[in-house]
């Protein structure tokens, strides 16, 4: 208000300067004013200083407007505050608590502050002790400020804070639990008990586990993809009455493992062909080419082997050892039998080439191999000149021989160790093997035979092992990821389906062994603690007085009945969660959907329940200072 208008109103007849502030005084004396002025007062320890500062600031403003002395206005402001709080004690108390909660709230939001207030900790007992110490200290310090250092008030404030701290902590937990109780499980979880449903929600499968379930198909269970659910199955199976439901389901599934695996491998990699029979077919096909060679020789020109003979004679003179002996044999094959005369018949030269091929087969001496190879090349060149159609027959024979080599090579591509072929080298072999040789037209059958050899080797490993999937997984793992990459090179994208089937059955087998047959102590996870806690009847520590002895006897009697109920409850939890852990197909999918829905709704409600729990905790534990004083005054203390 402008000063001239203020002066004009102040000069009006029958009006005092203080009358100008009557509307504000009425506001200050209202319930709203009582609530507002009590908020800063409720701040622990520093509340009186904050309120005093605000009162002084208000007194300065009033003095400036009214022209009255500051000291008089300060007394007026203080009187108005006391009057408002006296007229509206409940609103004043509410304001005090808002101030306390507002002060403690930001502190409790920090890790250190939450730990000091008992909101973090390993156990309720430890948290309660922490809260008692923290709020006892705050209560004592607050009382010291408000009482001017009165020892009795300090002790009283510390005692009240030490009591209200842990009580408020427990009350906050109850508030949060009460809010959470409104969130009920639905769908497939509605048929099981609330604690079991909460356990299932806490063990909700993650994205990786869900992907594995999808990859392994409808027969996969939660126990296959989650160590925690595997522990649930193991723990449930170890309790009487549950083995049939949990273990038998896994054993029944395991009985179909070999059939499932065989079908999936046939679908993805092709049906198995006996490599021995294939080789018999290729060998017979090569033998059947004999008449083709005879027909090629009909009408052939005479061969001129003089140049070959001269080259061999020269080489024989210059070398020694096994290589010399080998060339001497070849040189003798060129002559007419029993005479030292070269045979011009092309059939003799063809037989010589076959003989050289036989000598090369299995030879390891590099010098012998090198000289025989040169000799064969000369013989083959002369045959090609004299018998034009022979190269077509040679191409057929070579193709059949290459296919035999591909069949053998395929059985070796998954070998490990020093002889293991690299994936990139196998890819190069497959590419080279598909190229036609000689006069052959069209791609070679070598890659097909390599696939047949590898497929037969996979079948051999599966057929000679009691644990098909495990042996196959070790085979395809080989040297890191090499064998997996080589299977993809051999069979294309379909190899991933085979690898997935092998992984699936290996996982299924591992689950069955660990749940049904193993003594896996590593699986004693929180599910075991959950069942132990459920099976343990509640107990109350009693003193060793005569009254305590009587009460202890009564407690033992009661615990006998409670123990039976608790054990029955634990048995029910084990049965419900055990069945859930090995559910398959549509039952499993419905269960997972219910778990996800329940976990999602609990997650949405958790911030609300946590906020209300913390607010209740702070509101009660912060009830120091003016709140405490008003309460004690009302009660006559």
Description:
This protein has 637 residues and is an all-alpha fold. It contains 31 helices and no strands. It is elongated, with a radius of gyration of 48 Å. The chain starts with a helix and ends with a helix.
Descriptive terms for the model:
single chain, about 625 residues, mainly alpha, about 75% helix, elongated, disordered N terminus
Question: Helical content, roughly?
Answer: over 70%
Distance, first to last CA: 47 Å
The strand count comes to 0
Describe the main β-sheet briefly.
none
Structural class: mainly alpha
Q: What is the tally of helical segments? A: 31
Rg over C-alpha atoms, rounded to the nearest angstrom:
48 Å
The coarse overall form would be elongated
Low-confidence stretches: 1-28, 538-563
Instruction: Tell me what portion of residues adopts beta-strand conformation.
Output: under 5%
Summarize model confidence as the mean pLDDT.
78
């Amino acid at each position: 208000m402008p000063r001239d208008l203020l002066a004009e109103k102040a000069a009006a007849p029958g009006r005092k300067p203080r009358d100008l502030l009557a509307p504000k005084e009425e506001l200050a004396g209202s319930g709203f004013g009582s609530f507002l002025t009590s908020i800063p007062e409720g701040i622990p320890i520093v509340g009186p200083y904050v309120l005093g500062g605000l009162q002084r600031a208000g007194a300065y403003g009033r003095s400036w407007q009214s022209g009255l002395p500051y000291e008089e206005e300060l007394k007026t402001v203080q009187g108005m505050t006391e009057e408002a709080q006296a007229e509206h004690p409940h609103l004043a108390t509410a304001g005090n608590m808002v101030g306390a909660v507002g002060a403690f709230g930001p502190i409790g939001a920090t890790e250190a502050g939450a730990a000091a207030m008992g909101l973090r900790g390993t156990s309720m007992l430890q948290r309660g002790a922490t809260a008692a110490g923290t709020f006892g200290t705050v209560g004592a310090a607050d009382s010291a400020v408000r009482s001017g250092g009165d020892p009795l008030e300090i002790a009283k404030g510390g005692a009240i804070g030490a009591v209200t701290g842990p009580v408020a902590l427990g009350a906050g937990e109850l508030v949060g639990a009460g809010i959470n109780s409104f969130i009920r499980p639905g769908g497939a979880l509605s048929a099981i008990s609330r604690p079991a449903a909460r356990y299932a929600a806490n063990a909700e499968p993650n994205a990786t586990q869900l992907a594995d379930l999808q990859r392994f198909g409808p027969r996969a269970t939660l126990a296959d993809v989650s160590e925690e659910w595997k522990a649930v199955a193991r723990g449930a199976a170890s309790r009487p009455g549950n083995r049939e439901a949990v273990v038998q389901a896994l054993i029944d599934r395991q009985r179909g493992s070999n059939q499932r695996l065989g079908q999936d491998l046939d679908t993805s990699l092709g049906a198995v062909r006996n490599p021995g029979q294939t080789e018999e077919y290729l060998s017979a096909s090569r033998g059947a080419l004999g008449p083709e060679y005879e027909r090629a020789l009909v009408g052939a020109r005479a061969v001129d082997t003089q140049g070959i003979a001269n080259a061999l004679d020269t080489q024989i003179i210059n070398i020694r050892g096994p290589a010399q002996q080998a060339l001497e044999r070849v040189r003798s094959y060129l002559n007419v039998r029993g005479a030292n005369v070269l045979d011009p018949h092309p059939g003799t030269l063809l037989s010589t080439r076959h003989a050289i091929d036989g000598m090369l087969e299995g030879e390891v001496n590099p010098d012998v191999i090198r000289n025989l190879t040169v000799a064969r090349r000369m013989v083959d060149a002369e045959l090609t000149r004299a018998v034009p159609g022979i190269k077509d027959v040679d191409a057929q024979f070579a193709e059949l021989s290459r296919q035999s080599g591909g069949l053998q090579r395929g059985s070796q591509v998954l070998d490990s160790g020093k002889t293991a072929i690299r994936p990139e080298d196998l890819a190069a072999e497959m590419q080279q093997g598909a190229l036609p040789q000689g006069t052959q037209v069209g791609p070679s059958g070598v890659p097909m035979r390599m696939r047949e050899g590898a497929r037969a080797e996979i079948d051999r490993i599966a057929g000679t092992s009691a644990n098909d999937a495990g042996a196959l997984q070790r085979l395809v793992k080989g040297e890191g990821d090499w064998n997996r990459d080589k299977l993809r090179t051999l069979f294309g994208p379909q190899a991933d389906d085979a690898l997935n089937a092998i992984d699936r059955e290996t996982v299924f087998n591992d689950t069955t062994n660990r749940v049904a047959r193993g003594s896996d102590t590593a699986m004693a996870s929180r599910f075991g603690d959950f069942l132990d806690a459920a099976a343990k009847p509640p107990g109350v520590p009693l003193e060793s007085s005569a009254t305590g002895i009587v009460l202890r006897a009564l407690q033992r009697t009661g615990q006998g009945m409670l123990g039976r109920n608790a054990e029955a409850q634990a048995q029910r939890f084990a049965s419900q969660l055990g069945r859930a852990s090995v559910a398959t197909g549509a039952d499993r999918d419905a269960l997972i959907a219910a778990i996800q829905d329940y976990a999602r709704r609990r997650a949405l409600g958790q911030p609300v329940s946590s906020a209300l729990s913390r607010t209740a905790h702070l509101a009660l534990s912060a009830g120091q200072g003016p709140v405490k004083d008003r309460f004690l005054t009302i009660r006559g203390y």
